[in-house]
Design brief:
The chain is an alpha/beta fold. The chain is built from 10 helices and 14 strands. The strands form 3 sheets. The protein has a 6-stranded mixed sheet with strand order 1-14-2-3-4-5, covered by helices on one side. The chain has a 6-stranded mixed sheet with strand order 6-7-8-9-13-12. β12 and β13 form a beta hairpin. α2 runs antiparallel to α3, α2 crosses α5 and α4 packs antiparallel against α5.
Length: 426
């Protein structure tokens, strides 16, 4: 996915921000200590058991120690691994509920303090300036905090493999008649280095095969960083059956291996070459700023594939080179990993790209979707097009929510996706 889900997890530090890094660490530490304190208080007030709060505190401190240890020993030469994924998951699953408890309990303390001040000014005598904590408030805080805790826990255990087949029909007045009803299956953002359940991945491959589409497309990010991450999964992904019009792919930002420290430029170059070969190893033709013609019934459409082009990421994509030789009136489908490419270069281009297929955002792997009614994710504040189908003056982009997962080892509300698009003339 995007760099903002890379290292340590969500934030892109600019050169200007790095000078404030020590202050940011102090603020985070203070907030974490307060959250731990108030969570302990909530547990202590809510239970009648004398030992429960201390057992909770011991477990919490052990988890915190593991998280700190994992981050301190994170090897930038290796990048993300199973240990760092677990550490990020544990960080979110413990910190987010504690922050909610902090807000509720701190709010109660503010009200207790204000009440104490009012009574003092009114001359009311009480043995204690602050009244005792109310058990109801503590139970309420724990109840609210249980919602994100259970959601994140589900996301890590079940949600990350809760594959969904999403189908959309797109109508074009200038679609060649021979391609009326043409179907495309799209996958994106496999991130094979994060997988830990062969049975679930095999099930997803079966779902892809069940769609029996005319064309299968893979819009980048086959690994997190290293080509070796995909080696255990090559046989599984080779089970993706051939399509009548073929199987094609493009590169994603993670395929360039730019988010770790390499021993040498040669090591980086060798890894990049191996990653490009991986697409062929699983039966996909990798398009590198080029296009192919797909022919049917004496008519044709152009499939264009560019290297990664992102507004905040590597700009290796060359739309001009990839479309060289194509006419304005030719029907074109573009594969471009990062949807910001469509926003900044494609939709206003005179290249007349009818349909763009992207991925990259993962839908942040967290959000709320009620089909046809409501769609929200934090990633929408970074990307205008982040999940599903978007249109601009008759030109479309579909953003796949991603097949795999990265950084947070789970998915909440934004499930892994296999896209099936049907093109219609009308």
């Amino acid at each position: 996915m995007a760099r903002f889900m890379m290292s340590p997890s969500v934030i892109i530090f600019t050169t200007h921000m790095r000078q404030f890094f020590p202050l940011i660490l102090i603020i985070i530490a203070v907030v974490a200590v307060l959250a731990e304190f108030y969570t302990f208080q909530a547990v202590r007030v809510s239970t009648k058991s004398r030992w429960a709060p201390w057992i909770f505190l011991a477990i919490s401190l052990l988890i915190t120690a593991y998280i700190v240890y994992s981050f301190m020993h994170f090897d930038r030469r290796q990048g993300q691994n199973k240990q760092s994924l677990l550490a990020i998951g544990l960080l979110l699953i413990t910190l987010v509920p504690k922050l909610i408890i902090l807000i509720v309990m701190l709010g109660e303390d503010i009200l207790r303090f204000i009440g104490g001040c009012v009574r003092a000014f009114a001359g009311q005598r009480r043995q204690d300036f602050l009244p005792e904590r109310r058990r109801f408030v503590s139970l309420t805080a724990l109840g609210i905090a249980a919602i994100p805790f259970l959601s994140l826990l589900y996301g890590m255990t079940k949600g990350k493999y809760n594959f969904k087949v999403r189908k959309s029909t797109i109508t074009f007045p200038d679609l060649p008649e021979a391609f009326d009803g043409f179907t495309i299956t799209q996958i994106s953002d496999v991130h094979s280095g994060s997988f830990d359940d062969p049975e679930k991945i095999s099930y997803a491959i079966d779902l892809i095969n069940q769609q029996t589409s005319d064309l299968i497309l893979f819009t980048g990010d086959i690994v997190n960083t290293h080509a070796t991450e995909m080696y255990p999964w090559i046989e599984t992904f080779n089970r993706i059956e051939s399509a009548p019009m073929g199987k094609y792919s493009v590169l994603g930002n993670h395929d360039y291996g730019e988010y770790i420290e390499w021993p040498s430029q040669k090591d980086k170059d060798d890894n990049f070459a191996a990653i490009k070969n991986l697409y062929g190893d699983i039966g996909f033709k990798l398009l590198l700023n080029e296009h192919v013609k797909l022919q049917k019934g004496g008519q044709e459409i152009a499939l264009v594939g560019v290297e990664n082009w992102g507004h905040n990421f590597k700009k290796a994509g060359d739309l001009h080179k990839a479309t060289n030789g194509l006419k304005t009136e030719d029907f074109k489908i573009l594969m471009s990993h990062d949807p910001s490419h469509w926003e900044y270069e494609v939709k206003g281009s005179d290249k007349n790209i009818h349909l763009t297929l992207s991925g990259h955002t993962h839908g942040f792997q967290f959000g709320i979707e009620i089909p046809g009614f409501f769609q929200w994710s934090p990633v929408q504040y970074v990307y205008k097009q982040w999940a599903g189908l978007y249109e601009h003056v008759g030109r479309y982009i579909y953003v796949n929510r991603g097949f795999g997962f990265h950084a947070y080892p789970g998915r909440v509300g934004i499930w892994p996706e296999i896209t099936v698009l049907t093109l219609k003339k009308g």
